Amino acid sequence: MARIVSLLPSATEIVCALGAGDHLVGRSHECDFPAEVGHLPILTRPRFVPEATSGEIDRQVRELARQAQAQDALGVYAIEMTLLRELAPTHIVTQTQCEVCAVSLRDVERAVAELTGLETDVIPLAPNSLADIWDDIQRTANALNLRERGRTLIQELQRRIDAVPRTSAAPRVAVVEWADPLMTAGHWTMELIERAGGVPVLGAPRGPSLHFSMEDLADAEPDVIIVAPCGYNLEKTRQDARQLSHREDWQSLPAVKQGRVALIDGNQYVNRPGPRVVETLAIIAEIINPQLSNHEHEGIAWQWFHQ
After folding, report:
1. Mean pLDDT of all residues in the chain?
2. What is the pLDDT of residues 224-277, one digit of tens each?
3. Of 3, 63, 256, 294, whose CB neighbour count within 10 A is largest?
4. Interior CA angle at 87 toward 6 and 10, to 5°?
5. pLDDT recorded at residue 9
6. Which CATH number is 4-160's, of 3.40.50.410, 3.40.1360.10, 3.40.120.10, 3.40.50.1980?
7. How many beta carbons lie within 10 A of that of residue 198, not counting itself?
8. What b/e readout covers 241-254, taking b as 16+ CB neighbours within 10 angstroms?
9. 3 state DSSP class of 98
10. 211 has which bridge partners?
11. Roughly what angle, to the nearest 10 degrees, separates helices 147-163 and 277-288?
12. Is 23 helix (H, G, I), strand (E, B) or coil?
């Protein structure tokens, strides 16, 4: 019988959507959906202070990453090795995309090497686009001997994506994924904007997240600005938006003057490349499509920023 450890929130959601949630025996400190995983033992912890400001978190994370590279040390997150041994997983689901977002593959492979006497299958996820998300779902399904369930789940998610209304207005949309320093979203988020009928600026579909300046943002002339910092809920996102609103160059942006700044719970939606990517698309559609009357996510997953 499979004993699965998930070290990534989107991976936990994938495992549960495949119907294998009962086989989860451990999770990361950020895995909080669906609610029934809340009782699982937590195997990771950040080595920075999550309550710090965006600028301070960036400084701490950069220093930890530098130390990891220069000294062959632990990365941004630590793994509770004693607990991992006790759980004796047959499968560990992790990611290869970003050492800042979750435990690095290198640290996972080190941990597995210490699990002497166990055969543990590492399932690495690497989402850069919607197609990659479907591949990750199928890869996980195959590793768990749920191949057909994986195909069915992907078809269902693709059907729901195709059903999300698309605006014909083609608004220019910028996404602030981090406030200090300024970073834009990339990867699947830009692709979702395109699918909703928007024109992504400051980033490229399937491309990496990029640093940008406020001058770059002004030159891009977005009609809508979405603020969705990686790992932040709506309250923390609102705090970052307030910090941005104190800047004169932010205040001078037409989208800001027109009240077209939206806040999204990036932790639960934008930054989770799993089954709820469909909800992220629906949220973006609600924000950029003025003709869309059904706003079921507004006030819960996203809201307009009123300064």
Report:
1. 90
2. 999 999 889 999 999 999 999 999 999 999 999 999 999 999 999 999 999 999
3. 256
4. 5
5. 94
6. 3.40.50.1980
7. 27
8. beebeeeeebeebe
9. coil
10. 183
11. 10
12. helix
Instruction: Decide if 12 contacts 31 (C-beta within 8 A).
Output: yes
Domain ranges across the chain: 4-160, 167-304
Task: Give exposure, 54-86, as e/b (b: 16+ Cβ within 10 Å).
Answer: beebbebbeebeeebeeeeebbbbebbeeebee
Percent of the chain scored above 70 by pLDDT? 93
Burial of 1 (0-12, 13-18, 19+ CB in 10 A): exposed
Tell me which of 165 and 105 has the higher pLDDT. Answer: 165
pLDDT above 80: residue 65: no
Classified as helix, coil or strand, 119 is coil
For residue 90, the 8-state DSSP code is: S
Q: Encode pLDDT of 69-98 as tens digits.
A: 655 555 678 888 899 999 999 999 988 765
How many Å apart are CA 197 and CA 202, to the nearest integer? 16
Is residue 190 within 8 A of residue 198, CB to CB? The reply is no
Encode burial over 140-164: b for 16+ CB neighbours within 10 A, e otherwise.
Answer: bbebbebeebbeebbeebeeeeeeb
Give 128-196 as a DSSP string. Answer: SSHHHHHHHHHHHHHHTT-HHHHHHHHHHHHHHHHHS---SS--EEEEEEEETTEEE--HHHHHHHHHT
Which two three-digit tokens encode residue 145?
Answer: 């001997």
pLDDT for the residue 204: 78
- Name the helix (H) or strand (E) containing 213: none
pLDDT score for 294: 82
The alpha carbon of 18 is separated from its chain's Cα centroid by a whole number of angstroms, namely 19
DSSP assignment, residue 298?
Answer: B
* Amino acid (one-letter) located at 173: V
